[in-house]
Amino acid sequence: MKKRALVICPGRGTYNAAELGYLKAHHTARKGVIATVDAVRTPMGQMTISQLDAADKYAPAVHMTGDNASALIYACAMADFAAIDREQYNIVAVTGNSMGWYLALACAGIVDLASGARLVNNMGGIMHQHGVGGQIVWSICDDNWNVQKDKLLFINNLMIEASMISEVSIYISIRFGGMIVLAANEAGLKWLMERLPKDDRFPLRLMQHAAFHSPLLNHIVPMARAENPLSDFGVGEIPAIDGRGRIWSPRAFSREAIYDYTLGAQLTDSYDFTRAVQVAAAEFAPDTIIVLGPGTTLGAPTIQALIASGWRGLSSKADFQARQQEELMLISMGMAEQRAWALS
Question: Which of 231, 229, 258, 264 has the alpha carbon at shortest distance from 246?
Answer without folding.
Answer: 258
